[in-house]
Specification:
Layout (H helix, E strand, L loop, with lengths): L8 H16 L12 E7 L10 E4 L15 E7 L9 H7 L7 H15 L1 H7 L2 H42 L4 H8 L3 H13 L2
Parallel strand pairs: 1-3
Antiparallel strand pairs: 2-3
Helix pairs in contact: 2-3, 5-7, 6-7
Length: 199
């Protein structure tokens, strides 16, 4: 289940595809014995903004779009936010937690339960590494937001201090400056002393 649109979902699909191939091929086995492998992202948003219920990707030839590589790999991005549910309505209803009891939703629910209980398959459900990366991205965004807010506050404070120092230097009294800025006489004097010390 993918509820947030992080950058790099196509690359993550590529990573999952590679991990799945490595784990399904025993040492010494021929490449031709690789089974078909599907990577499916269930997204609550439309990653590609075309309003399709699902986006299915196979390797194709650039020079001939109809020529498939047929390597057995397939990547699917489900879009539960699609405006027209079409023949996947019960599936989308399940994802949107509407409690659909139709056959498709029932099978999906059973498969999810088995997947969670199987330690070998759990890493395909959501790897620890991907969770760490998502947390890191969230942390970076939060840090940037906090830093931006602090920078604005620091800049505002410095601007007020500079104005106070200029007023004082121009001959305005502490009382007049305090009245204009809403600060106390003590705060004004602290700013003035700090400005004089920094000269």
């Amino acid at each position: 289940m993918q509820t947030r649109n992080y950058n790099g979902l196509p690359q993550r699909a590529r990573f999952y595809q590679s991990v799945g191939d490595v784990n399904s091929l025993a040492p010494g086995e021929l490449y031709g014995t690789l089974i078909d492998h599907y990577v499916i992202f269930i997204c609550t948003f439309d990653l590609f903004k075309l309003d399709f219920p699902k986006y299915t990707f196979y390797y194709t030839c650039k020079e001939s779009k109809d020529l498939l590589l047929k390597d057995g790999s397939c990547i699917i991005f489900m879009n539960t936010s699609v405006s027209e549910k079409s023949d996947l309505k019960s599936f989308h209803d399940y994802i949107e937690k509407r409690g659909s009891a139709e056959r498709l939703a029932g099978k999906f629910n059973s498969a999810i339960a088995q997947l969670k209980e199987n330690d070998d398959k759990r890493r395909y459900y959501m790897t620890y590494t991907s969770r760490i990366m998502e947390a890191k991205i969230d942390g970076q965004k939060l840090g940037e937001k906090i830093g931006e807010t602090r920078g604005i506050n620091i800049g505002r404070t410095q601007g007020i201090d500079n104005t106070i120092a200029k007023f004082y230097k121009a001959g305005l009294s502490v009382a007049d400056i305090a009245k204009a800025t809403g600060l106390s006489d003590e705060q004004i004097m602290n700013v003035v002393k700090g400005a004089e010390a920094g000269q």
